[in-house]
Every structure is written in structure tokens, then in C-alpha cells.
Design goal:
It is a single chain. This protein is α/β, with parallel strands linked by helices. It is built from 23 helices and 22 strands. The chain has an eight-stranded mixed β-sheet with strand order 12-11-13-10-14-15-9-16, with helices on both faces. It has a six-stranded parallel β-sheet with strand order 17-22-21-18-20-19, sandwiched between helices. Helix 7 (205-236) crosses helix 22 (654-670), helix 9 packs parallel to helix 10 and helix 19 runs antiparallel to helix 20. The radius of gyration is 31 Å and the shape is globular. The structure holds adenosine-5'-diphosphate and magnesium ion (MG). Adenosine-5'-diphosphate (ADP) binds next to helix 10.
Amino acid sequence: MTNLETPIEYIAGIGPKYAEKLLYLGIESVRDLIYYFPSRYDDLSNIEKIENLKVDVISTVEGKIIDAKSVRTYRKRMSITEILIEDDSGPVRAVWFNQPYLENSLTKGKKIRLSGKLVQDSKGTYFSNPTYELASRVPTNMGRIVPVYPETRGITSRWIRWKMQEILKSVAAQIEDVVPTAILKRQKLTVLQEALRQVHFPDSFKKLEEARKSIAFSEMFLIQLNAVRARKNWKESKAIVVKFNEKLIKDFVGTLSFKLTTAQRKSTFQILRDLEKKYPMNRLLEGDVGSGKTVVSAIAALEAMMAGYQTAIMAPTEVLAKQHFETFGKVLKGFSQKVGLLIGSEIRTIWKKNTRKNFLGKIRRSEIKILIGTHALIQKDVQFKNLALVIIDEQHRFGVEQRAKLQKQASELKDGLKKSVPHLLTMTATPIPRTLALAFFGNLDISLLDEMPKGRKKIVTEVVTNVNRNNVYEFMRSEIRKGRQTFFIFPLIEESEKIAGKAATEEHKRLSERIFPDLKIGLLHGRMKPKEKEEVMSRFKNKAYDILVSTSVIEVGVDVPNATIMVIEGADRFGLAQLHQFRGRVGRSDHQSYCFLFTDSTSETTKKRLKALIESEDGFKLAEKDLEIRGPGEFIGKRQSGIADGAMKYLGDIKMIQQARLEAQSVFALDPQLEKFPVLKEALEKMDQEAHLE
Ligand code: ADP
Ligand code: MG
């Protein structure tokens, strides 16, 4: 018997040929097909009386074929099939070109529905190439709200509708709600069977909305239940307790050349409180570019170090890891400096000369207390002695799969003796809107740096069209004459660093030969070796270049305070969050900074987005705006979310997410083993397995 897990090729009328095509749509099983949602709907629910038809309007009629004929014009190699169809108000003609096989199905006496545009020309008034179906069949392609699916070669919406209807009918009874019945009732939701039916074949747009919302709720409920459970499991493991050391913190803060912001103090306090607990911290430190996350993390690492424990700090790139290595070395100067750097093949400590073996020995003996690096830190031969804390910087840059793996591996980096799980602090400069944070990071505690250090000047942001390009060049020149530096960013075209690298290389050539032959221009792209990249960055930092031409690899955390101009080519190709990140590369000193957004796009969405960027410097506000303009699907990436497309838009619905969380908490509190909810239990297990596969 067919069930939800049946491979799609075993379905009658599908077979291996269609299965191969369906694979392009990500459909492998019956379940996949059922969760393949329409991208839009055509309202063909009104069946018109033939006498009321209007020319140039798409309409649907139903009637009996009273005449049918097919003509072949041999000279033009064309076939014309023509019928006359009649309802109780009158007849109308319908004509198909080059579909000779219709002759066999559209025979006199048959009752059909047809839908299409009524045209009028020298040959009279008729439906041109309409779609049709037998009137005896359940309305599928017309006479109802019709689902339109994303198609692929050889798979039409019409075909999907037909299969969907058959399959829904045969497996509907097997579709079970994961959300317990009591909750469905309390939240006034449609049962899943019916909701899925309505999503594909809605009886009305109102029912469609209710159905989508119900499906979104049930997915959110699962996500929340998973988060609630993960949180509880996490709290069941043991961590190293790092006692709050007030004097140390005071001494350290006293050595800083600036005063911590209130937000920094609050976040630091939250983190230090977590470190005192017997179970591991799992906290996300969210703060805009330049909000000062590094020093907050340094305080945590310092405390662990002075208590005799180790900290591992992971950055997404070698450039950034090295920068952290330098920063940490600098700020921890007055304290014992047991900081090491491990990136790829390279190792470095403040003690000169080190073999890898030697270096690893120092980690194993806890002589290196703060180890900074890329994900090279997660290697079998890197063994800690007493790892109390893991910090992951710019975690959003690690990529989705990598991130999940990293967190898991990080939590498994065990201190050899006590088998404890390290405290985990992740940091991100992507401000996540509150709804999404609640939706996807429900298992984390969150600290916000929602305040910038004092004295930062507003960055002047302007959209520049091609015509005004030269003005910007002139302005750059005048700033550079004053001793400032400029970034020049190129978009990733077609997601390929190879092509972007080429574009950047060409532009580098153009700028150095034609526009600024008198200036020194550096080039940075993702295809360069890490060592080369690092060299270019440090040369830029040391003012060996006036201009740095780069692809988006520059985005990650680099700190060059003397750079005051950020030029972004093809600004429309970047998301708001990313543009905001780029802009954050400048404005890091007392000098006035500028961000120029080059674009020739005239699209409304682009205009809206760039306008938002000009008007606000608040990353959180921009994130909300980005969410609003692009929708959650674009914002978090559809594939990353695991949320069915049709349900996506409810991710902005904070009330629903909160309700889902409350309900999940209540279920879990009542029955943590989910003994009474076998379907739910199974769904969670499946989620686990999928997470492991990643
Ligand atoms: P991000 O949050 O983007 O990682 P950083 O930690 O790199 O930001 O900090 C950006 C710059 O701001 C650094 O040069 C840092 O020394 C400086 N900074 C951090 N906190 C403060 C503060 N409270 N007042 C002034 N400058 C600060
Ligand atoms: Mg940073």
C-alpha cells in the first residue's frame, strides 16, 4: 500500500522516468510531493455563462460539445482542432493549433470545462488554445481556485495537479497531526490532513490562509519543542565552574583605553554569570559591526585563563583569526599571556619558534590557555587539558552545515579529565530580528550589544548611478590626499568567487591604469592563498595601499580605522544585512566616513532597500526592514529553515511563534519522554536524524 515514505517512482503512472524529473524539484517520496506547495493560485472558480463572456478576459465555461472538427493544412504543416461548445445560454468556439491528438478526446456529445482567453479576430470570437478537462471529473484545472506549481522540464502544473489529487486521496488518511489534538483545538487550527488538502486545492482563499497558518504552526511547534528539549539536555551536562573574579575584571577594565558601553557591561555580566553555573552556557552575543564584541569575549577568556582553564576561539577566516590573535595579545598585555594561534598549517605563539608537535604539547598541558584559530582547531590531534570555554566569532559566516557541526564538535571538545562540556559563546554581527531569533535560536540565551561605543560619527551613505561615478572618484582622490584610505567592493556574480575574483582583478587593472595611475591599489579576492590575503590586508593596514579592491571576502571583521570610504559596486546584488556589514568597515575612527552604493538598478525593491540603508545605521532596525522587504524565506534562506514555503510568511508572526513555544513548553513539562504523543516523538526523532545527516 502506498504510504508517505513510498518512493515516488513506485506510484502508478509515474515510474523512473518521471521520478528522475521530479528529483529536480527535490521530490523523492510521496511525502515530498505532498509538501511541494503551489507558488501561486489562479482563481478560476467562477464558471461563466457563455452569453456573458468578454473578449480578452480569461474565463472558464462548462458545456457540451455540439460540433468538433480537425483540419490539417499541409502546406503550412499545421493542424487546427475546432469545437463548438454550448451551455444553456448559448454556444462558443474553441480552437487549438498543432495539437492533433485532441481530435480523439474532444468528441461530439462530451461534457467538458474549458478555461482560457477569449479572443476576437478576423476569424471571429473564440477561445484560443484553452485548457480543458472532462466535466465529470472533480474540478482540478479550472472551476476552482487552481494551484500553480513551480515547474521543471517535462513536469507541468497540470501534471502535478493530477497526481497530487490522486495521491492526496490515497494517503490522506495516513497523515497524522504532530500537534496534539487539544492544542489544535485551543489554537483553532485545521487538522493537517485537511490543511494539506486546502493548500493544494483550496475551497476558498480564507480556507487557504487558515491551512497555511496551521501548517506553519505545526512546523514551528516542532522546532520549538526541539529547542526546549535541546535546552534541557544541554543543561543536564556538566561544565567547568569559573568563579566571578571581581577584582580581575575591574583591573582589566581599568587597562582599557575606553569605557565599556552599558550594553557591553550588561552582556559581560550575563556571560560571567553563565560561567559560574554548573551546566554549560549556550549564549549568542549579537551586536552590530563595531559594537565591541571582541572585548566582551576577551573578558570571558581572561577570567577562564586566570582561573587556570583554557579557552578556544574560532573565527571563520585566517585573516580574522590573526587579527584576534593580535588584539588579544594587546589587550591582555598586563596579564599572563598564554595565547596561541593555530590556522591551517601555520602555528604561532608569543614564544617564538615552535614545532607543531611542541605547540600541541603546550595545548595538551594547558600551557596555552587561549587558543585562537579557524576551524582547524577542530582536529583530532588538538587536545585540550581543561577547556572551559569555546567562543565562535562571526558564526553566521561559517555556513549552515558547518555551523551546526561546529557547535556540536565544540561541545564535544572535552576536557580530558572531567569530561565536562565547555561553555559556548557564539557571536554574530548579523542582527537577527526578534521573531526569527525566537523561531530559530530558541535553545540559546541571547545577549544584545544594541548600543555603539560613543563618539562614532554617522557614516554618510549615498546611492550613486553610473553617471556620477567620476564625482565619487574625485572625492576619493581628495580624501586620499588627506591621508585616508578606501575600500572598493565587488559583488559575487553567480555565487562564484572565481568570476568575482576575475571582475575584481579587471577592475583593479582599470582603476590602477586609467583612473588612479598615481595611487597605490591593492587587490583581495577569495581565490588567493590565505597567506597572500593576509599580506594584502596587513599592507593595507600599514597604508602601503590607498585603495583596496576586493570581493566580498573583505566582509568579515577586518579593522582598518584609517579607511573612511567604502565603495560598493553592484550594491543591488547584496542583501541589506551584508551592505550594512560592509559599511561597518569604515567609520572606525574620528574621521568622517562615507559609503557609496553604486547601482543602475531601477527595481522598486532595490530602491527601498538602499533607502533603508541610507536612513538607518541601526543593524537591528535594518534587519527588521530586510525581513519585511524580502520576507523570511529570502532572509534566512529557504533551504536553511526547513520550513515549507507556504508557511514561511508566518515566521514574521511573533504571536504565533510565542504560542507555539508556550504550547511546546507545556507539552514537554507534562510529558518529557513524550510517551503520550507517539507521533510527536517520532517526528522529533526524525528531526534528530536529519540534523545528524548534515
Ligand atoms: P565587533 O563587535 O564588530 O567585533 P570590535 O570588537 O572589533 O567590534 O570593536 C570595534 C572597535 O571598537 C575596536 O577597535 C575596539 O577596540 C573598539 N571598542 C570596543 N569597545 C569600545 C568602547 N566601549 N568604546 C570605544 N571603543 C570601543
Ligand atoms: Mg568582531
